[in-house]
Amino acid sequence: MALLHTVNKSPFESNTFDACLGLAKSGSTVLLIEDGVYAATTGNSVADKIKNAAGINFCVLGPDLQARGVEEKLAEGIKVVDYEGFVDLVAEHDAVQAWL
Amino acid sequence: MAIEANGKTFETDEEGYLANLNEWEPEVATAMALAEDCPLTDEHWDIINFLREYYEEYQIAPAVRVLTKAVGKKLGKDKGNSKYLYELFPYGPGKQACKYAGLPKPTGCV
Amino acid sequence: MAKKFMYINRKAPYGTVYALESLEVVLIGAAFDQDVSLAFIGDGVYQLTKGQNTKAIGQKNFSPVYMALGDYDVNKIYVEKESLEERGLSLEDLQHLVWEDEDNDYEEKDSIRLVSRAELTDVLDEQEVILSF
What we know:
The complex is a heterotrimer.
Chain A: E1 3-7, H1 16-23, E2 29-32, H2 47-52, E3 57-61, H3 62-67, E4 79-81, H4 83-92, E5 95-99
Parallel strand pairs in A: 1-2, 1-5, 2-3, 3-4
Chain B: E1 2-5, E2 8-11, H1 26-35, H2 42-58, H3 64-75, H4 82-88, H5 93-100
Antiparallel strand pairs in B: 1-2
Chain C: E1 4-9, H1 18-29, E2 35-40, H2 63-68, E3 77-80, H3 81-86, E4 98-101, E5 107-110, E6 112-115, H4 117-125, E7 129-132
Parallel strand pairs in C: 1-2, 1-7, 2-3, 3-6
Antiparallel strand pairs in C: 4-5
């Protein structure tokens, strides 16, 4: 049983990302979308949160990363997926929790 | 609304602006101008081409004040004034020239 | 008489409509010949990043519009240093916004002023009209 979590809020402006990490079990996947993609960037004050979340697979939606001009800031170990990849993730997991 | 040009029909909004900016062809400008009894000269085309370049670069239709200043820089001070531009486009350089150039109505133009 | 107008931008682009709405209001307001300043704080600094490409999300890329602000005599653009640093960004990651000084042979001058939170506090305190986005 593995969940797919999605986060669409900036980690700097809301606690949605923290709420997600608090309840995401090892082995689950967190997909960052919309303003949530900023959590996937490096060299900032929230970067350690991903590093410290052992056992969680982090993915980010490429189109949202490109739109915001932060593709080059992507932190290591985060998989970039497109819309088809998003659909695949939904299909591969048992359920989806969309953190809003 | 719609306008015929180059053997095709182009959809426009209720004020005559092109509905799909990507469809623009020079013949559209000619047809729009003819319909408003304002045959296009090289001087008109200078402004229309300038507007298209500006939109391509900045993604907005410039306000008249901005257009005037920019035309002055690019085509010379004698053309960068509202008297010259209004002579070319009596319905207003912002509204009329942007329409012919296939741009949206300038922001702040009511 | 011209009043001192400040537009405060605190939201990232595309995820919400605030950034685009702010730009529209700034452009419309610029026609009224006021003394306009823009401040980018918090996630608002993300509005100015270079290399935005919205093709895949199907929204209009409005980042080129910031480059036109100089033409509208909007050339006091305050970016808060602490907000940039918290996000791992520097001025190099932002678009280079300039304005042309018509009275000085169209010399290009920088529009962005990188300021500390303390400096921005003072700039804010001088304003007569403040609009928040």
